[in-house]
Amino acid sequence: MKLAARLLPCLLLPGCISMAPDYERPEAPVPEMWPDTTEVVIDGNSALQDWRTFIVDPRLQRLIELGLEHNRDLRIATQNLRRTQALYGIQRSEQFPNIDVQANGINQKLPEALNGTETISRQYNVDLGILSYELDFWGRVNSLENQALYAYLASEQGRRNTQIILISQIASAYFTLAADKALLALAEETLRSQRASLALTQQSFDNGVVSGLDVAQAEVTVATARVDVADYSNRVAADINALAVLVGEQIDDTLLPQADGPGELGGLAPIQVGLPSLLLTQRPDIQQAEFELIAANASIGAARAAYFPTISLTATAGVLSSDLDDLFSGDAGTWNFTPSISLPIFHWGEIRSGVEVAKADQQIALAQYEQSIQIAFQEVADALAGRQFLDQQFDAQQMLVAATGETFRLSELRFRQGVDNFFTVLDSQRSYYSAQQVLIAVNLNQQANLINLFRALGGGWTGSPSSEFSPESSPETASE
């Protein structure tokens, strides 16, 4: 009676015994603070949930909206999520018995040579019942359900991570295009200036003021500027094509960035950085790795359950008759109840090896989870360090542009007054042009750094994930 009292709850509640190890979130293998946080703005409530709070340029916002709708990588991630959700539904259904209806008819003729008389027999039956339902005493089916559940949750986080990467890629491509358009505008402006200088130099040569060397040097600068214009024109065309692939469709010209001047790239809001522990809840790739770890943990339970007996039930009830007209008469009822048990005896190490495989997979998932945390910490720390030095470099480069611009203006004025030769003008002009190019590149690096920090902090998803919950909560609660 005591044994029956213990087994009855297991019959009513499958999976009441679990062979899976208890899951505890591993300690994060990173420091509690960012390195050298004296220049970092810390906000313990930073979430970066909606990418629109970070990306404020309306053209870029529209491009990202189009990308979230049409990008093929995101579509693939969405379908993978749909697939794992369906697989979880399949596995979850194994917790409950399948009820099937079977109907068949047998018509058989026996020849006279067999028993001296030719006979014809008929049999019709309709059965409703449960076929081979496994009683989950040892939690094998429940562990497989948990594994499928957390695989689905990991896939959901994978879709979120793909979305964040897509937003970052579109933003990066957008600012790369803006920078190349600025470089193209600068090259075109320089070409016009060089052509004007060439005309002036040619006029001075005709008047015997300058030598033919000065004219040749002016022609070199014009040719160099033409090369730059062609190069940046090619870059702009390639950038537009790359942006169109990310967005997933052709882009209207009104959504393309304008050709801003050096140091004028913008459209991103400042970012406040939370503590490293927030990465565990903000970065979807870390959550994906943790769900995969929990799924591997559940696989150990399923593998261990193979040591114990498998108990199955088959039960049917129906009607049976030799005459189709009498099939549903009152005395045609029939039933069948067939319990079965299978106990492993000699499997030559197969079950033990299966458990070892599950344990190895769990340790691999653990290492991958810890590695994802370390990589996330490094990415944020690198972005924070880069932000400080890029700001210093940008300020210094602005001063250099102002200084070389003034040098070019004065050298050109002195040349026209006959004080300096044309070589001084060309040298100062090259320095001014190069300084402006570097300023655009540094400005682009600043935007790229902000985008990398945004992605590294796990920002960019909108709304609350449908299955977001603490990994320590029960699978039944999580799936409701």
Automatic annotation (TrEMBL):
Residues 1-20 form the signal peptide. It is found in: Cell outer membrane. Keywords: Lipoprotein, Membrane, Palmitate, Signal, Transmembrane, Transmembrane beta strand. It holds the Pfam family OEP. GO terms for molecular function: efflux transmembrane transporter activity. The lineage of its organism: Bacteria, Pseudomonadati, Pseudomonadota, Gammaproteobacteria, Alteromonadales. SUPFAM superfamilies: Outer membrane efflux proteins (OEP). Its main location: membrane. Belongs to the outer membrane factor (OMF) (TC 1.B.17) family. This is Outer membrane protein, multidrug efflux system. One of its GO terms (cellular component) is cell outer membrane. It is a lipid-anchor. It comes from the Bacteria.
